[in-house]
Amino acid sequence: MKILVGVSLLALGSLMFLACGSDSSDPGGGSTAGAAGTGGAAGAGGVAGKGGGAGTSAGGTAGGAAGGAAGAGGTIGADAKIIFLHHSTGGVIWGGGVDDFITSYNTANAKTYNIIEQAFPKDSPYGWNNYPYDYWNIWVNHAGPQEYQTEPTLEILTQSYNVIIFKHCFPVSGIEADGTPDVTSDAKTVANYKLQYAALKTKLREFPSNRFIVWTGAALKQDATDAEQGERAKDFFDWVKGTWDEKGDNIFVWDFWQLETEGGLYLTDANASGDSHPNDTFAKKVAPLFGKRIVDVIEGRGDTGSLTGE
Fold first, then answer.
1. How far apart are CA 304 and CA 302, in angstroms?
2. Whole-model pTM?
3. Quick one: average pLDDT of 131-157?
4. Are 52 and 67 within 8 A, CB to CB?
5. Largest interatomic CA distance in the chain
6. Is 208 left (phi over 0), alpha (psi -120 to 50) or beta?
């Protein structure tokens, strides 16, 4: 997981909190010139893919493109670059010590992993919304080499970062009853979310040399939602980690929902601030778990390590 442009958390902190709270993831050998297929490590000039083992030219460029550096079993390398895209909830967790964890891990393990954080999307001109519709809209609907309303597309982000991490703020869990499913709708329904996530999965897999980590959604406090919404949110994020996320590809999940709710339907009072943001105590507890999940994905344990990092 790699984090992008150096946006100061302190500079954005108050804006993040106000805005978020107001909106009620072919077997083959390596390639001599590219990344490995899913069955082998990289050939000369390549990056390791799933499975390990010596890479040669067997499998060729086609195998390398199919498997890619992001195969679940290979390591990216000691200098992996990670960007974390987030709003206020992510900012709280970042402030709990994510960067410190990576720095300490680097020192202890002779790595130079570099992680940065960035607000995404920014408040202007796109708007302070980071829900399934918005990732679909920017990365799928407006895919390409040009920014969309000053926001970087995946074609841009994947050029600079090996690992891209993204998440949703807690209003994502205010899920209403399904209407007619529509991938182009910003209505918060399970049916729309599933269509948008399906399109995102297809898009993320177009970049096999990169890895992606998506958080299960931030939860709402019980006094900010109701049991029906809580059940719908839990069902959707259970689907994300149990069905949408598949082993062997370049997409991974960090189960933030489980950590926040401790298995229930709501952000627990013990983990919450005055509203549905997590508190600093919780952030300090889970920031190292987030860091461990990032390291597991970088080093090829994304499909075998704990989804929570515990």
1. 6
2. 0.80
3. 98
4. no
5. 59
6. alpha
